[in-house]
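Input (structure):
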């Protein structure tokens, strides 16, 4: 009986407590903040004709407008460059930076960010994905987090826009991952680079901190470049703050089941170091906390009565976790009922991600990358 409680209830209850704690202390910034130094908005864009105009116009229209907006057109095959050129003609703060062929040893996004950082004149560099739309108070909230936490980097979990069933099924688990495994204050209070969460959809960094970390060339071969860069910043003595960006920006990161599968397959294994132990450990942990209580409840209903109480406690913890996230982050309510199925889906993606990473078959935006071992030499 004690073993059943430990297996089916203890871990979900601990995770529930951690999630509630993190949601209570997760900084959102203030709408009356400011960034006192010169600000550059830097947008890497590859085939983003559908979203780039909304992205640029949103940051220009903010209550704390930037000093410049630079878009790097990374060899787009659609009309991205033409749209940015038109916006640049309308507003002198907007610049189009033409792409160059990707050098050997580089992954596409770190190279685009490196070119943008070289071209920027700002003291604070705000990297924004082209499918991310800043709120009017985005820069103000970032500025208040910089000031309140004496931060060198502010990165944030943006509000996720989800349309298709696959997006609504899987993407909410991204925020669950952010808040379920680590007391968030350790990110900015500890110097240990292992205590870290980052999101490249919205990442603001002081230029001295970027330089001290070795800049984007130091993470040139990383697919999960946001985590790699922030780890370098912490190793160099900088302070990272991971904020709740729900009021800072919104993003539709993937469109449909295919992009959800490919996008998470690109990132998951690399995000835990690309090792079999990391992937298998993550799959086992997710299964134990988020799936096992439901299996135990099914077994109890089929006759294993000793599992009923611990399984109900574990399932209740999972339901409360998803309710808390749905209320705080406006996540789809059906995720509460579909939670164990969604986690099983994510576990399957994690296994596929490891397979892609090991065989050097990571594909994204028309590019294919070698295995992590090959890229890092």
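Output (sequence):
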């Amino acid at each position: 009986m004690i073993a059943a409680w430990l297996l089916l209830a203890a871990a979900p209850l601990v995770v529930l407590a951690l999630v509630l704690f993190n949601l209570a202390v997760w900084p959102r910034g203030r709408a009356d903040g400011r960034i006192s130094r010169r600000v550059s908005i830097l947008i890497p864009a590859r085939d983003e004709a559908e979203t780039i105009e909304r992205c640029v116009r949103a940051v220009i229209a903010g209550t704390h407008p930037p000093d410049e907006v630079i878009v790097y057109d990374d060899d787009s095959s659609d009309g991205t460059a033409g749209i940015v050129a038109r916006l640049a003609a309308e507003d002198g703060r907007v610049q189009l930076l033409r792409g160059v062929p990707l050098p050997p040893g580089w992954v596409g996004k770190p190279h685009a960010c490196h070119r943008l950082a070289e071209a920027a004149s700002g003291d604070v560099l705000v990297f924004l994905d082209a499918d991310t739309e800043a709120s009017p108070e985005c820069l103000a909230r970032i500025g208040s987090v910089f000031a309140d936490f004496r931060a060198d980097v502010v990165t944030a979990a943006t509000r996720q826009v989800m349309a298709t069933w696959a997006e609504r099924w899987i993407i909410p688990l991204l925020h669950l991952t952010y808040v379920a495994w680590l007391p968030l204050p350790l990110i900015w209070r500890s110097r240990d680079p292992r205590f870290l969460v980052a999101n490249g959809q919205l990442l603001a960094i002081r230029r001295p901190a970027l330089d001290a970390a070795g800049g984007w060339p130091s993470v040139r071969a990383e697919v999960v470049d946001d985590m790699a860069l922030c780890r370098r910043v912490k190793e160099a003595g900088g302070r990272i703050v991971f904020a709740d960006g729900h009021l800072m920006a919104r993003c539709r990161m993937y469109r449909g089941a295919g992009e959800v599968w490919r996008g998470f397959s690109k990132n998951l294994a690399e995000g835990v170091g690309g090792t079999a132990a990391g992937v298998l450990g993550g799959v086992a942990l997710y299964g134990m906390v988020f799936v096992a209580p439901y299996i135990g409840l099914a077994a109890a209903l089929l006759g294993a009565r000793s599992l009923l109480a611990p399984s109900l406690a574990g399932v209740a913890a999972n339901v409360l976790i998803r309710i808390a996230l749905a209320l705080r982050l406006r996540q789809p309510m059906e995720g509460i009922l579909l939670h164990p199925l969604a986690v099983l889906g994510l576990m399957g993606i994690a296994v596929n991600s490891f397979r892609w990473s090991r065989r050097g078959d990571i594909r994204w935006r028309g590019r294919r990358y070698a295995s992590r071992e090959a890229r890092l030499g």
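Notes: Residues 2-22+263-365 form one domain. The mean pLDDT is 94.
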